[in-house]
Specification:
The complex is a heterodimer. By secondary structure, chain A is of the alpha+beta class. Chain A contains two helices and one strand. In chain B, α7 crosses α8 and α11 crosses α13. At the A-B interface, β1, α1 and α2 of A face α8, β9, β10, α11 and β22 of B.
Chain lengths: 60, 541
């Protein structure tokens, strides 16, 4: 493995806030997007070898 | 004398032939041929041979089956330890204690061991070959392994590797062999229960059925997927099964499912994944165990959205009970070489069994999709958040890593997701180049037993074979007991912004408290380096 160094970075927090303090006019919705919901629904379908095929598929 | 132990120099082909003749071993089976061939290629020059070795695995098979046969079998095995030196110096040592100490001093050249049972049709009871000497190279990495302590001639040697066994076709088929390999890894690495092949077959056949009873002894020719799930569950695993779908034309398809990414996530988590491969010409599927990955160089311009580290893979490394350890199973037909390994994932993979630990209720692909969505949402709204909280003037100078933020908005970052212990994530994170704010939060933060960690990188900073050369710009941590039905991401750390979600144990029905911090600086950190909890391997003073 090649060794390397990162630049020294100084942590400088500009602002810390909790969600309740976010001004209401700021557009920052953290809920799951529709695209992600659709993708996850699709991922959950990807396991569909029929029960009939599972019952006769031999591994040996 | 019951036991005899000898050392042999194996510097030439003549040495090998004489050695194999002397111990009565013929290389008629492809598995043994491949093991010997790979040992030769890796520079083996010497062997310590133990005769009349009592192998716990074969003893289990012997007492359960072979001792019940009319044809007599002996119960003793032979064990061979291979070294990358000729061992001639051992002959010059007169004292037993000197020999024992001298063997331990050969640890750096120890290449692993093979235990041979007295079955000419299936001699390999267990083989553990050193993953660093026979599996890893610039492109390849064995990600599933543990350290085996081996005792020989009063010396203790260690070998890091993934165990291999061979089906004997009398008490088990490749399905049992694959589950045995996974089970033995969990036993050695995580103190899971010890299971022999006969015990695995017993668990697989309860309850039994007519299909499985077509062979004698039952289960010796094949198992069905349900039998495998039963056995894995009895082995205290919590298997998840992925299967191909019928394509409506008499064949099967994975559709848009990125199966190589799925395998890669679990292997990257140190979990052996059982793959069932099947060619149209074969009557049975063949089970192998995915234990590592092999990378290749690709044109970064060809990367699609939502790409992962699996896009850089050409092969999955597998342990195959018929062929050997750490063998390259091609991901796609472009990298497929039938002479090298006769299957590929694109055309031949039918089933995947992932033997998960308990308390993992969310799959890697869903955890990754949740994390990626959080990253994208945060990137899209980062400017609005800065303006709304800092004011227009100060927000003008708030411009964290524009290239990464743009890539995150377009889902063009490279994701890498793996399962790890919550405590181990914390340990690694505190030693990585993360913000002091995140570290101060992490040190007191409670995590579930397992978390999914998703690392995000720019494609130009993710493609290197050497993990130390890759750069991680953001990461998210997702509760492995979580769900997409409620907030399961625990934290997101990205250029300019840190978000944490914290449940209040005194108010379990409340939504988690969300804390955000804006940063003036970007941080770039190391990816997880397999096998180490810090980054000394990558860092220079």
């Amino acid at each position: 493995m090649e060794q390397r160094s990162f630049e020294t970075l100084t942590s400088k927090t500009l602002l810390s806030l909790s969600l309740t303090e976010i001004p209401k006019d700021i557009d920052f919705d953290l809920s799951l997007s529709k695209e992600a919901i659709d993708d996850i629904a699709q991922l959950e379908k990807c396991s569909s070898l029929s029960e009939l095929e599972m019952g006769k598929f031999m591994v040996g | 004398m019951l036991s005899a132990v000898k050392s042999y120099a194996l510097e030439t082909e003549t040495d090998w032939e004489a050695f194999l003749n002397q111990i009565g071993l013929t290389l008629q089976h492809p598995l043994l041929q491949n093991i010997v061939s790979s040992l030769k290629s890796a520079g083996t020059q010497g062997c310590i041979f133990e005769d009349a070795y009592l192998d716990r695995d074969f003893s289990a098979s012997y007492s359960r089956f072979y001792s019940t046969l009319f044809k007599p079998y002996r119960k003793y095995c032979k064990r061979l330890h291979f070294f990358r030196e000729n061992l001639k110096d051992l002959n010059d040592l007169a004292d037993a204690d000197q020999i024992s100490k001298a063997i331990e001093l050969k640890q750096d050249n120890y290449m692993g061991f093979v235990t041979l049972r007295p079955l000419s049709h299936a001699p390999v009871s267990i083989a553990v070959l050193c993953k660093d000497k026979l599996g890893n190279n610039v492109e390849s990495e064995v990600g599933v392994y543990s350290t085996f302590d081996i005792h020989v001639m009063g010396a203790t040697l260690k070998v890091k590797g993934m165990p291999l066994t061979q089906q004997d076709t009398r008490i088990g088929a490749c399905a049992q062999a694959a589950m045995w390999m996974a089970g033995r890894h969990f036993h050695n690495k995580h103190r899971a229960p010890w299971f022999s092949v006969p015990e695995i077959t017993d668990r697989a056949l309860k309850p039994t059925d007519s299909v499985i009873s077509k062979s004698l002894p039952a289960g010796s020719d094949y198992l069905l997927p349900d039998n495998m799930v039963r056995a894995l569950s009895a082995m205290q695993r919590h298997p998840i099964v992925y299967a191909v779908s019928p394509d409506g034309k008499g064949g099967s398809t994975w559709g848009g499912f990125d199966v190589k990414a799925t395998i890669s996530r679990y292997v990257d988590s140190g979990i052996p994944v059982i793959l069932v491969l099947d060619k149209p010409s074969d009557s049975l599927g063949h089970a192998v165990v995915a234990v590592g990955t092999k990378r290749k160089e690709i044109d970064l311009g060809t990367l699609a959205v939502k790409s992962t580290q699996a896009n850089f893979l050409s092969h999955i490394l597998v342990n195959d009970d018929q062929r050997g350890s750490y063998l390259p199973l091609a991901v796609g037909v472009d990298d497929f070489d039938d002479a090298q390994y006769p299957f590929n994932i694109e055309e031949h993979l039918k089933l995947i069994f992932v033997p998960l630990p308990d308390k993992v209720f969310i799959t890697g692909e869903i955890a990754e999709r949740l994390a990626l969505d959080k990253l994208r949402t945060s990137a899209i709204h980062l400017n609005a958040l800065a303006k709304g909280t800092l004011g227009d003037e100060q927000a003008k100078s708030f411009n964290p890593h524009p290239e990464f933020i743009a890539a995150a908005k377009d889902l063009k970052v490279i994701s890498r997701t793996y399962l790890t212990y919550g405590w181990r994530y914390k340990s690694r994170a505190l030693r990585n180049n993360l913000s002091a704010k995140l570290k101060s939060d992490l040190i007191a933060r409670q995590f579930p037993k397992y978390v999914w960690v998703t690392e995000f990188s720019l494609p130009s900073e993710a493609f290197e074979h050497d993990a130390c050369k890759r750069v991680v710009r953001a990461h998210a941590v997702t509760d492995a007991t979580g769900s997409q039905m409620w907030e399961s991401v625990q934290l997101l750390d990205m250029p300019g912004l840190l978000i944490t979600w914290t449940f209040d144990p005194n108010a379990p029905v409340d939504l988690p408290k969300v804390d955000m911090s804006l940063f003036a600086e970007d941080f770039k950190c190391f990816p997880k380096i397999r096998g180490v909890d810090d980054y000394a391997l990558c860092s220079v003073a």
